[in-house]
């Protein structure tokens, strides 16, 4: 190999003139985490709502939920990002579109919305599977006690479901963090984009990507360990770990 | 919204989109799935072997691939492959690797980690008695694995393997980041050349949607048909 290793590159000044390359990677990590966190809030909220709708005794609600999930699951995330970033500002009313395009950090907001909606379809799948895995008696008992349907979901079914589907939700959270890297295609300067920029300016390809890889692994380990503590705290006694469908990223 | 929607640009670029773009996407999906299942099954066998020398490297590989974004991995392979090629062929210069070969190796090796986890679950879903009975009949481990356990594991996992293939199909759009002309790459090239982003990206989304939806419906149908009644 005639590749010139230079690990000291991280402490050199990057072309922005202010930060070292190492600091630019940390900034990227911040954007990655911020994007993933905001998207995860959207994913969890909408995903729970849609997942619950798909288990309700109304054909229209179930159909709406099914269409929602298929819509966001059957188009690649990259294409969805492009739709939100390039297409939506063009087809909304002109003034609103112009405002969208001139928004500071537009790629961040776009990435949050696109990633949040994309992941919400997958959260909805987990929530639905979780609700369906509960014994039928729980719903019947709640209704028999005089709770309304929304109350049944809010106080009985969903709290149980979250405690059961915690392990698959953890892996969806990790997927959200990883999938935020796709936002580099719309110009979000998150971790992978920073590593790519560092490679372009310094030609130290492998140092840059090694650093990014290590940071992703550390994030992964920290989130996994933290969620494992949460899982243990909230596990429902008597329930074995909930088994999720295995396909996915 | 369709007032100045130019359907003609889609019509004109159809041959380019499908002959060049979609062929690349589908070929990459098919070959990477095959390669990924083969390597993934080998990794699964390593992880289940019970020998630390085989278990640990396989587990490390799978966990590494699963904790890093695919986009980053595409970059890794894109830049690393010329050097690995140089090392293998012992040439003086970093080897020139074609776009398709580069993508194929990347997708095969990356997806192998995910297929490994599916196959591991599949093999574990076969009761131990099957292996024990096969070996009691005098079969060696490879024979018993190849003729008794793996065929049943594949059958049990067929729907999940196919679902992963649909995900792989959608993931092929990520080769955009190294400027390869897959279906989305072709659409975006036309979009930028003709300034028709709205038309090309909505069309691409519709095509991906139809193919993925049809495929996932087929998988659901298949799942009902091949389910083993226990």
Topology of this protein?
The complex is a heterodimer of chains A (249) and B (230).
Chain A: H1 21-53, H2 59-73, H3 77-91, H4 94-102, H5 106-133, H6 136-144, H7 149-164, H8 166-179, H9 191-202, H10 205-234
Helix pairs in contact in A: 1-5, 1-8, 1-9, 2-5, 3-4, 3-5, 5-7, 5-8, 6-7, 8-10, 9-10
Chain B: H1 7-48, H2 52-67, H3 70-89, H4 99-124, H5 128-136, H6 141-171, H7 183-194, H8 197-226
Helix pairs in contact in B: 1-2, 1-4, 1-6, 1-7, 2-4, 3-4, 4-6, 5-6, 6-8, 7-8
What would you say this structure looks like, in words?
The complex is a heterodimer of chains A (249) and B (230). With 249 residues, chain A is mainly α. Chain A has one domain: MetI-like (MetI-like fold). In chain A, 73% of the residues lie in helices and 0% in strands. Chain A has 10 helices and no strands. Chain A has helices at 21-53, 59-73, 77-91, 94-102, 106-133, 136-144, 149-164, 166-179, 191-202, 205-234. In chain A, helix 1 crosses helix 5 (106-133) and helix 8 (166-179) packs antiparallel against helix 10 (205-234). The two termini of chain A are 33 Å apart. The model of chain A has no long low-confidence stretch (mean pLDDT 90). Chain B is an all-alpha fold and 230 residues long. Chain B has one domain: MetI-like fold, CATH 1.10.3720. Helix content of chain B is 81%, strand content 0%. Chain B has helices at 7-48, 52-67, 70-89, 99-124, 128-136, 141-171, 183-194, 197-226. In chain B, helix 1 crosses helix 4, helix 1 (7-48) packs antiparallel against helix 6 (141-171) and helix 5 (128-136) packs antiparallel against helix 6 (141-171). The longest helix of chain B is centred in the N-terminal third of the chain and has 42 residues, at 7-48. In chain B, 39% of the residues are buried. The A-B interface holds A 1-3, 70-71, 73-80, 82-83, 86-87, 90-91, 174, 178-182, 184-185, 192, 195-196, 199, 205-206, 209, 212-213, 216-217, 220-221, 245-249 and B 1, 64, 67-72, 75-76, 79-80, 83, 86-87, 94, 114, 117-118, 121, 157, 160-161, 163-164, 167, 170-171, 173-174, 176-177, 184, 188, 197-198, 201-202, 204-205, 208-209, 212-213, 216.
